C-alpha cells in the first residue's frame, strides 16, 4: 500500500485556485487499489489547527506532491511557513530512515513555464533538509488559463501534457528505484500577446471591486 499526500499550497480563500484544479486533475492517476490518497489544503490546515495530524500524514507518506502558484518567483509565504513548521516537526519526531518521494507542481501566471525553475529548486533544497528524495517538477505556464478555459482548444495540448506528467509521477511512485527524470515543462497553447493583453485587462474589474480606478493601477507612490 502506497500512502500518497497531495498538498494544495494556494493561499486563495473562497475562490477557485489553479493549484487545487491541478490536484483534481492529478488525483485520478493515484486511485489504484494499492494506494491511500490524502489531500491537504494548507490554508485549511492552518485555520483549523490540524497541522499536527496533517504533518503525521506527511511523515508517513511514501510520496508527497506539492502544488502551488508562483508568487514573486518563489513560494507563497503561507506555504513557506507551513514547510518550516513541517521541518521542525520532522526534527522533533526524528528524521525518517525511508526517503519519501517528493514532486512539485508549480503554476505561473506568466506564459513561460521556465520561470518556475527557482521555486522547484527551493522544494529540492527543502527535501534535503528532511531526508526526502526530490524527484522532479511539473512546471506550468499560463496557469489561470487552465482554470478559466476548461476543456477548450486552448487547453487541450497542455492538459494532455499534464496527464503525461501525472502518469509519470504515478509510475515513479510505484517503482523502488530512483531513475533520473527531467522536469516536465508545460507551456500554454495560446498566442502570447493576446494572453498578456487579456491578463492586463483582468486587473480592471479587480481594481473596481476594490474601489480603485484604472489610473490608480499606474501610480508610482514610491518614485522619487
From TrEMBL:
Domain Flavodoxin-like fold: 3-113
SUPFAM superfamilies, alphabetized: Flavoproteins
Domain of life the protein comes from: Bacteria
Gene3D superfamilies documented for this protein: 3.40.50.360
The protein's name in its UniProt record: NAD(P)H-dependent FMN reductase
Amino acid at each position: 500500500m502506497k500512502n500518497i499526500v497531495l498538498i494544495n499550497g494556494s493561499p486563495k480563500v473562497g475562490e477557485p485556485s489553479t493549484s487545487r484544479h491541478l490536484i483534481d486533475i492529478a488525483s485520478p492517476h493515484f486511485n489504484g487499489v494499492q494506494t491511500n490518497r490524502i489531500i491537504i489544503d494548507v490554508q485549511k490546515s492552518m485555520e483549523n489547527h490540524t497541522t499536527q495530524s496533517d504533518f503525521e500524514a506527511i511523515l508517513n507518506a511514501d510520496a508527497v506532491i506539492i502544488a502551488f502558484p508562483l508568487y514573486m518567483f518563489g513560494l507563497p509565504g503561507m506555504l513557506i511557513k507551513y514547510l518550516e513548521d513541517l521541518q521542525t516537526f520532522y526534527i522533533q519526531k526524528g528524521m525518517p530512515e525511508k526517503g519519501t518521494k517528493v514532486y512539485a507542481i508549480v503554476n505561473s501566471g506568466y506564459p513561460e513555464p521556465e520561470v518556475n525553475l527557482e521555486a522547484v529548486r527551493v522544494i529540492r533544497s527543502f527535501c534535503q533538509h528532511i531526508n526526502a528524495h526530490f524527484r522532479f517538477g511539473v512546471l506550468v505556464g499560463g496557469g489561470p488559463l487552465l482554470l478559466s478555459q476548461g476543456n477548450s482548444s486552448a487547453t487541450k495540448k497542455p492538459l494532455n501534457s499534464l496527464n503525461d506528467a501525472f502518469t509519470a509521477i504515478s509510475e515513479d511512485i510505484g517503482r523502488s528505484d530512483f531513475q533520473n527524470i527531467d522536469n516536465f515543462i508545460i507551456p500554454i497553447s495560446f498566442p502570447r500577446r493576446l494572453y498578456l493583453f487579456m491578463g492586463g485587462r483582468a486587473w480592471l474589474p479587480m481594481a473596481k471591486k476594490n474601489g480603485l480606478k484604472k489610473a490608480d493601477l499606474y501610480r508610482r507612490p514610491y518614485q522619487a
